[in-house]
């Protein structure tokens, strides 16, 4: 009788362990999926910014337009860093648009600007989804009893995609 109870207890423990372990992997898959979607949107936005460089140079006769975007091609950046660099470039475009009023009248520039605004909505939605999944994942990493499996399997808390300024290097701590 005692052996049956021990066997049942071990089976229940194994079922719980496997199910919790699988939930961690399910969250990792969702996190990867969200990262891929954000990455695709950021690349699309980056391409739009590259298109705008030629238009802005032609209309403003300035040579050093969005040099930081041109330099990003050779850098290896995370989505967090790329998002911040693109945000800075968009601020630069806004300043140029105010300085050179003729840019607002250029049809190609307006199309690029519309595309940039559309990608902003996509990034906001992707960021919300990513952060929601990260919240659930981090709760599992820190909550008892799933934190036991997190310790055994070395699952660690993950950073939020928050869009803060690059000057705040510690903004990803939980």
Give a brief rundown of this model:
75% of the residues lie in helices and 0% in strands.
Q: What key phrases describe this protein's structure?
A:
174 residues; 75% helix
Task: Give a topology summary.
Elements: H1 2-60, H2 67-72, H3 79-99, H4 107-142, H5 146-153
Helix pairs in contact: 1-3, 1-4, 1-5
Describe this structure in words.
By secondary structure, this protein is mostly helical. The protein contains 5 helices and no strands. It has a domain at 32-140. The chain is 75% helix and 0% strand.
- The oligomeric state is single chain
Low-confidence stretches: 165-174
The backbone outline, from C-alpha atoms, is: rod-shaped
N-to-C CA distance:
48 Å
| Major pleated sheet | none
**Element-by-element helix/strand order:** HHHHH
Please tell me the overall pLDDT: 84
**What does the radius of gyration come to?**
23 Å
